[in-house]
Specification:
CATH architecture of the largest domain: 2-Layer Sandwich
Radius of gyration: 19 Å
Number of strands: 13
Strand order of the largest sheet: 4-5-10-6-7
Distance between the termini: 51 Å
Helix content: 25-40%
Largest sheet: 5 strands, antiparallel
Shape: globular
Order of helices and strands: EHEHEEEHHHHHHEEHEEEEEEHHH
CATH topology of the largest domain: Uridine Diphospho-n-acetylenolpyruvylglucosamine Reductase, domain 3
Length: 287
């Protein structure tokens, strides 16, 4: 349980971190460390250089930016769950952050580290998909914005380039008559999501579903939006029957994960159950 030898670097700015990343192509970035350090101890990865982003204070913030809320990549889970702005404008994100790990994890782990690592059982990916977030990456060519729907590309893979750092997550403020929720079935040992579902619903003046966005984590190799479920919700009045029919499509077309704790069939069933529950919770909050 001891990592291989490595050189440790602690930049004080994003520009300094990018310079190190360019000059040390075999380096790994360290944010909160809750994912990378255990992998290093198990020798699943053995980087020759470790670039610790922890001193970059400019990446720790939550602020309202026009009609969106911007969150710096090094903002901790606890800061997000306890932020009055997030609780008011993006309540399901606060709910998601509150469900992560334990107090110690939430006080050190960061939203940027979680999203860049993109563990298939991480909580944030489902929430930011449902919240239609944009992710801002910075590299030698400057900054670029990546839509959340394009960010997760595979198992532990994202659209970030090797020479880029995730610096910000930006989410539009929820409009009126919108409800949101994040619910999960946690693994009893790790707290990771065996299945986690985020739902955001907007109702029209007649109470029908005008917009539906669902994000699901834990089920497949990476988080996804179940298109058939969303399509089945839009334009209709939501009752138990329509919600159940839509939720039954939550695992359609997904290569479902399987392990010693949960079989593929069990995970698919949980995806349906928690999609139904998340939709109902979001609907209740939208009224």
């Amino acid at each position: 349980m001891i990592p291989a030898q490595f050189e440790y670097h602690r930049p004080a700015s994003v520009s300094e971190a990018l310079q190190l990343l360019r000059s040390l192509p075999d380096a790994k970035l360290l944010a909160g460390g809750h994912s990378l350090l255990p992998m290093m101890k198990l020798r699943l990865t053995s980087p020759a250089h470790l670039i610790d982003l922890g001193r970059i204070k400019d990446l720790r913030y939550i602020k309202e930016s026009g009609s969106a809320v911007a969150i710096g990549a090094l903002t901790t889970h606890w800061t997000i769950e306890s932020s009055p702005l997030v609780q008011q404008k993006l309540p399901s994100l606060a709910e998601c952050a509150r469900s992560i790990g334990d107090v110690q994890v939430r006080n050190v782990g960061t939203i940027g580290g979680s999203l860049a690592h993109t563990d298939p059982a991480a909580d944030y990916p489902a929430a930011i998909l449902a919240l239609n977030a944009d992710l801002v990456a910075e590299g030698p060519r400057g900054r670029r914005t990546i839509a959340s729907g394009e960010f997760f590309t595979g198992l532990f893979s994202t659209a970030l380039r090797p020479d880029e750092i995730l610096v910000e997550v930006k989410m539009p403020v929820l409009p009126p008559r919108t409800g949101s929720a994040y619910l999960k079935f946690p693994h009893p040992a790790s707290g990771f999501a065996v299945v986690g579902v985020a739902a955001v619903l907007t109702l029209d003046s007649k109470g029908r579903c005008e917009q539906a966005r669902i994000g699901i984590t834990g089920v497949g190799p990476f988080a996804y939006r179940p298109q058939r479920t969303e399509d089945a919700l839009r334009g209709v009045a939501l009752d138990d029957k329509t919600i159940a029919a839509a939720a039954d499509k939550a695992g359609d077309g997904v290569d479902v994960n399987e392990d010693i704790f949960a079989s593929a069939d069990y995970r698919r069933h949980l995806a349906q159950v928690f999609t139904r529950r998340a939709i109902k919770a979001a609907l209740q909050r939208a009224r």
